[in-house]
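tool_log.txt
---
The assistant was asked to compare two proteins side by side. It first ran the structure predictor on the initial sequence, then on the second. Raw inputs and outputs are pasted verbatim so the downstream comparison step can read them without reformatting.
(1)
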Amino acid sequence: MHTSCKKVAILQSNYIPWKGYFDLIHDVDLFIFYDDVQYTHSDWRHRNKLMTRGGPRWLTIPAGHDLKRLICEVEIPDQSWKQQHRSIIEQNYRHAPFIKESQSLLDFLYVNSITNLSDYNQSAIKHLSNILGIHTQFTDSRLLANCAELNVTERYSEK
């Protein structure tokens, strides 16, 4: 499946990752989402900070407080946060360059029925990568039986 891979990165998915996350995806042949590990509540998996006119503001996906689960097990049944997050972004960036071109991205991020945190983040990251012209192959660590099959020559992680 991934026999020609040379450079691989493995990271947990994040909600609206920073530029460096996409730089890492760009620099490897295969990016592995590592979401079958312990979920932590105060982390980037379900939240991110947005600069607004009034200063920094947290955008948080309501994922509950149960820490006895893996990231891939976190469900987000309440979808009301999507409209709120979209509205905050649109209000604070309405005069930003390319905001009109960003509407299809906002539709993708906030008009969907994905209720699993890992699935949501992975889908958004893949979509954003495509928009950025990044053509790295993606997989999920849960789908890999044996990492030796990847023929890895270089491994990258967060810096």
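(2)
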Amino acid sequence: TNLAPNLPPFSLDSEQIAQALGNLIKNAIEAMPDGGTLDILTQSVGERKIQVKIQDTGIGMAQEILSQIFEPYYTTKDTGTGLGMAIVQRIVTDHDGEIYVESEEGIGTTVSIELFRET
């Protein structure tokens, strides 16, 4: 974990952001059934933006899966509703943020969230 020590204050719904990050961390852990590394990184990007990255060394996703992960009820798991990533995306966009996902099969996945500070 690499958390930037001096992030600027932001106005956020802490419960929603906690839910979004919890969903992402849960997904990352589930993507590493044989163990692996989970990294959480934060950083300031300029004066108006912070970035949070959740990186895992899990099984990764094929491009056809990656293109559907924000679709409600889409899942590749045996259990669950397929709503986790749709909820994460909604929370991020409700905060006027952006979310990006990069993944490579056998290598892992990185989810980046960028949140903007009000001026």
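---
observation on (2): The chain has a mean pLDDT of 91. The first strand starts at residue 38 and ends at 45.
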